[in-house]
Amino acid sequence: MTVTHSTSNTLRFLSLLSLLLFLSLNPSSSASLSKDSQQLLSFKSSLPNPNSLPDWLQNVSPCNFTGVSCTNSRVSSINLDSIQLSTDFSSVSSLLLSLTNLESLFLKSSNLSGSITSISKTQCSSVLISVDLAENSLSGPISDIQSFSPCSSLTSLNLSQNFFDFNLAPKALSDGLVLNFTTLDLSYNKISGQNAVAWLLPNGYGNLQYFSFKGNKVSGQFPVTNCMSLEYLDLSANNFTAELPSFANCSSLQHLDLSTNKFSGEIVGSLSSCKSLTFLNLSYNPFSGDFPAFSGGGIQYLYLAGNNFTGELSENITGSLCSSLVELDLSSNNLSGSVPESLGKCSDLESLVISNNNFSGELPINTLFQLSNLKHISLAFNNFVGSLPDDSFTNFTNLETLDLSSNNLTGSVPTSICQNPGNSLMVLYLQNNYLTGPVPESLSNCSQLVSLDLSFNFLTGTIPSSLGSLSKLKDLMLWLNQLDGEIPQELMYCQSLENLILDFNFLSGTIPASLSNCTKLNWMSLSNNKLVGEIPSSFGGLSNLAILKLGNNSITGNIPPELGDCQKLIWLDLNTNFLNGTIPPALFKQSGYIAVGLLTGKKYIYIRNDGSQECHGAGNLLEFGGIRQGQLSRISTRHPCNFTRVYVGITQPTFNHNGSMILLDLSYNLLEGSIPKELGSMYYLTVLNLGHNDLSGPIPPELQGLKMVDIVDLSYNKLNGSIPQSLTSLALLGEIDLSNNNLSGMIPQSAPLDTLPASGFLNNSGLCGYPLPNCGSDSGLNSSGQHQKSHRREASLAGSVAMGLLFALFCIVGFIIVAVETRKRRRKKEEAIEAYLENNSHSGNGSAWKLTEDPTLEIELLQHLKVACACLDERPFRRPTMIQVMAMFKEIQAGSGIDSTSTIAADDSSGGFCAVEGGGVEMSIKEDTELGK
């Protein structure tokens, strides 16, 4: 330690000595460097946390400061990327941009905030060429870019991933941007409107070589003029709605990305002059017709996914592209026919993605054989038939991804798939086919394998223990096969394992306690097998475990209280086993600790149980990636429930903070004792099913803490006492089943309990009151009082119905009145415009104008309809009040409309699962009507 400290002091002394020597020999440079040093030190001292730049010190040359480079003894470049400066941009503009010899400034992801307008008030370096301020919190209109005008030499500016918008006065809009950039990146800001690009490029692209505007909300058209210098153009992920313009003057264009917009029209003709084009991405637009007949080579990366192209890939079409093609993505179109053999001539092809089409015929394995450079193959969701030859993959030493899921393939999983010890395979997806035979032991030779999915097939035999040698394996999914034997203990060596999905097989034996060594597990699903033994208490050490499904087995013993230590556990399904003992209160101590969900982006399907006698539990959550929704019937052989209530989507926990479980299903076991009052701490619990056990004692009033609960099933137990009045505070309760218990007393006569059917309260000998028969009494007085209460309740119910009908009538009448008024205003507007056109037309052959439909009318009508539907919602707690309805009408007439956060929209901030798209459904799971094809 002493030697190290002495060495450090020596180095510092030598550095200072060399600096003093240099300054003594170069007095003019010393003064300049000293000025640079003072500016940098002043900038450091202005920071909220100066310690973020620890080696910017008074007695050290600024050329030795972290992130600082010098040229000819002057500070010429500063790179403080990812250093948390946490300061306003005004400090940057006044103390860094004004450095006399500064040529480049890089402050990406440095936690900068404020406006960039302060630049115009300072002296910018006359030699400054490049500024990168990406991934910060800078804001203001994009017109503020003009503030960089003092930086006369600035040619490269990156303001991506900030909060700039487009809000310009008419005069400013006509002025346009006058700076002369060669590189400009404004991607992923908050820019919207139709004129943003036109303002930025009033005279075309000029000297621009690189222009990125992706990830905003810009609509309308964009200029394609004066683009001789343009090499890189990215306008993806916007709202452009136009036919593809001609790029006739863009002869230098190499990279063009217009994906995720609404472009249409003819492709080849628009790009025929772009002879230098190597990258073209037109994915997710409404292009249609036959696959475009590109002529000549040059394009290396071609992405046309998510359009409406139809027809077949003819031999000459693929042949014209093959000379240079490296990546080809034609997925999610309507292409059909077979894959042409000419594709095998694309010798440089590394990635082939043609999934989600209607290709048919034999799997083009012989064509693929010729493409020895392939790294990624995805032919999923097509109609290919045939088998995989056992020697088919020996030549694919570079192959990293093979996705043949959701086809009609037969035969066995080829043992040659990992035969070459130098293979690079990372992803193998063969799910949803008709494969038979065993899971090959040779898969253990795929040492780089990360994800293996052989689900939804007819595989037999055991799970190879050799899979335990796959140290990089994250996903092992083998559900819905005919596998038997025990779960290999050797899986404990898969230290990277995150998803273990083995549902719907015939696996036997005990659950290996050694799986707790796989500490990254977050989805473990072993339901619908023949497992015995106890739930390992060591699973409590799985701190990332989010979903644990062990239902429909023959598991015995107690529920381990250690599961309460799983602080990410949001889904616990243990239904239909032989679990005994009591429900441990410690199981609920994780409530309030779940903040971040690791289980994100996985496709799932949730089959809501229909309540039939054979259908046990609340429902079945299944991993569903790469499987056709239309083939759900294949599950029916092992799942006795009807497929009438099916929800699909993508797992995305939506807790803002401090979540809890969202599903707890312990039904159809042998549990006894009382329901722990600690269960009431599960604020976000949506489904609670404790039915068909031997639970006794009263229903804890603490269950009023289940504020998000939708389904409660406590049926077929031995519960006694009365139904707690506190349960009436469960405003979101949609279903409750307390039948077949020993409950007594009056059912609380208020919502939501008085809105639920009688079936949920039957076979409780002492239970009475609506919706069951009225409670009996011993005295006439009590009987009279009861009748009076009954009459009051009936009158109250009738009054509520009358008020509801009156309120709905008010909403509908209001809707009609406002719609009529809207139509009148629209007609007046049309008449005024027609009169203006008639009086001001200069056309010699009569008016050629045709008024288009006013789009605002349709929007207004839809908004009024939303209000009317909200008023008629069968769920009282979802209906807006009369005051809210009046406010909504007022907003619509003012032109502001109703957004998704209004009171008529379901609130999804409560937590749980949600699908990325789709309408809200029960259980905080949103329904998405499509899951592949």
From TrEMBL:
Source taxon at top rank: Eukaryota
Q: What is this protein called?
A: Uncharacterized protein
